[in-house]
Write a structure and sequence with these properties.
8 helices; globular
Length: 275
């Protein structure tokens, strides 16, 4: 399948960048890269509509210009795998491509092909969440991976002995990729759903993992709180240190209190307990 690569040069605030990426996802863009003052977005040729793009960007006064490049069809998995280096977390887990050799000394070898989904364990927020799963047991607990991307965290929770794992993402590409990766890792008992947080009504979990952007988290924390029992754990990441005060304020309003604060390369992950 051919893709368009759209480079959006801007002087937007980081909050506006998050909102812009959300809006682009709503009109069919499937994958994003963020660089200094540039959003690089990918969309299939068949879904690309320049009118929809222009309308979306017109609401952001800080967009300077766009550059569009057609990327011819290629074996996206092969391209990714050729450039992907496995990620090892001590002896806890090794996130790797199909071509990599397994590490027998590691507790969990997890094989993924992310295609265009978020979550290769290279990103600091995914790494921070993996460290939480390494430190805190989920054995025998019901776990939700919200905004699951490639499904890495859901697969890891399943392998760590969670009694039930649900993985949710509103992006169709991420949903299909999570199913594929669960199959690769013999983790198909994971319930994988394409939806947003509205689907969580009347559902309950002992542990919720949500690695999403700040604005979506702030919107959905009230829903997560309703899903957790007293002493239930909420793990949040996908934001910066400057966002922590707002995240904590919203969590506190729903009886969720921070008990752990981790940082990596300016990104933050927080653990909350329901009181």
């Amino acid at each position: 399948m051919d893709y368009y690569q759209i480079s959006i040069y801007h002087h937007l605030t980081e909050d506006a960048v998050d909102l812009c990426i959300d809006d682009l996802g709503g009109i069919g863009f499937e994958s994003f890269e963020e660089k200094a003052d540039v959003i690089i977005a990918y969309i299939s040729k068949e879904n690309y509509q320049i009118e929809a793009l222009n309308l979306c960007l017109s609401s952001y006064g800080g967009v300077d210009k766009c550059e569009t490049v057609l990327v011819p069809d290629q074996d996206w998995n092969a391209v990714w795998e050729a450039n992907y280096k496995g990620v090892r977390f001590d002896n806890f887990c090794f996130i790797h491509a199909p071509s990599h050799n397994l590490l027998p000394e590691v507790k969990h070898n997890i094989e993924i092909e992310p295609k265009m989904s978020f979550g290769t364990a290279h990103h600091p927020t995914t790494a921070l969440m993996i460290r939480f799963l390494e430190k805190d047991t989920v054995r025998g607990k019901e776990v939700l991976d919200m905004g699951c991307g490639t499904g890495i965290l859901a697969i890891l929770a399943y392998k760590e002995g969670a009694s039930k794992v649900v993985a949710i993402d509103n992006d169709n590409w991420a949903y299909k990729n999570s199913v594929e990766n669960a199959r690769r890792n013999q983790a198909l008992p994971i319930e994988i759903i394409q939806a947003d947080a509205a689907v969580l009504k009347n559902r309950h979990f002992d542990v919720i993992i949500a690695n999403i952007n700040r604005n979506i988290l702030l919107r959905d924390i009230c829903i997560y709180a309703d899903c957790l029992p007293v002493s239930g754990n909420l793990y949040l990441s996908g934001f910066y240190e400057r966002d922590v005060e707002k995240i904590e304020e919203e969590c506190n309003a729903h009886k969720l209190f921070c008990v752990s604060h981790e940082n990596l390369d300016e990104w933050v992950a927080l653990k909350f307990v329901k009181k």
